[in-house]
Amino acid sequence: MVLSVLESSSHHVDHVRTSAEDDFCAFRPEIQAEFVENWTTDAVPVIPSTVLPNGIAMPMLGLGTTHSGGYYHETVVYALRNCHYRMIDTAKRYGVEKKLSLAIKESGVPRKELFLTSKLWPVDFGYESTREACRGSCERLGTDYLDLYVIHFPEIPRWFEQPRLIREETWRALERLYDDGVCRAIGVSNYNQKDLEELLEFCSIKPHVNQCEFHPYINPMQLREFCKEENIMFTGYCPLAKGKILDEEVIKRVATKHNKTAAQVCLRWSVENGVPAIPKSRQSYRIRQNCDIFDFALDESDMESLANLHDPSRKCVKLENLQEKYSLPDGYKLNGISSICDNSVVSFVS
Asked: Of 71, 72, 85, 94, which residue is the catalytic one?
């Protein structure tokens, strides 16, 4: 039986305040604007936190900002200002760090209340270049530290020689950034067990996090168990599988049972597995919906039904063509997005 993160003794979670039942509903398009206009921060649940292996608190639900699908400034501001989102997950690769600094400043949320994650793109691997890349992310985000900095992928670009040595030098740079207080936690992303085993052979500090695709159709139990044994927090991206699984009958049936949406069921499933989730949406009403998952719990039969859906062929993020992508510019998927902040640096509210 899978324990809810709200009950598990292995993960401390902050007090949860939920909104009234009347605030929870399926949102029809014709009433979306009315709900967005009338929602207040008092009606929104406070998002609970888990604790990383080094004792740093991290929210169980955050805001993804990948460049796929574009960047939506007002949605980010709304998530921070109106919905109590405090974790933002981004990367140099996404090309939105400067834009996020503007959104954060506009939201009025103080830096100390935020949990900012950014990622190191493999073209920046190496000791000095990793440190420089981290400083660049901090500058674009308008902060002097990151709450979490992770290696985006383990695969080395072809032009690097001695891949293992490069990975070791890169991790040493992350350890130094951690020791210097530039990063409150460090980790990896898209690492399989073999990748982690290699890292564990030479690291002085274990990664605090391994961030991988995670939803009912991609549930890598063996990798999750390995991370648990090594005291590495497994966290999930694409918790809604980019919307591709929300019409599946099993998920819809569970959603109907709890008077919730399919997206809310997927996010709740992640939370109850103890896996922090970072969904992304361009719509404010969906941002609001996504955080309304702390007033219900999935029962054992629900968890079993969803756990049985694992199907590797349903993976959303394909890793086979990474080498070709290394030559593309950061944020190349931001078609038509304004470059309003390409030349600006913004400081946080103190």
From this structure: 94
Alpha-carbon gap, residue 175 to 154, rounded angstroms: 16
326 counts as catalytic = no
* pTM for the model: 0.85
Q: Which of 223, 274, 258 is nearest to 8 (CA)?
A: 274
Ramachandran region of residue 212, left (φ > 0), alpha (ψ -120 to 50) or beta? beta
Structure tokens at 311: 């199907």
DSSP state at residue 337: -
Summarised one tens digit per residue, pLDDT across range 202-218 is: 999 999 999 999 999 99
pLDDT in tens, 226-236: 999 999 999 99
Q: What are phi and psi of 272, to 5 degrees?
A: -70, -20
3-class state of residue 188 by DSSP: strand
CA dist., res. 216 & res. 218, Å (int) = 6
* Amino acid (one-letter) located at 283: Q
Q: Give the three-class secondary structure for 332.
A: coil
The two beta strands, 63-64 and 57-59, are unpaired
Give tens-digit pLDDT for 305-344. Answer: 999 999 999 999 888 889 999 999 999 988 644 433 443 4
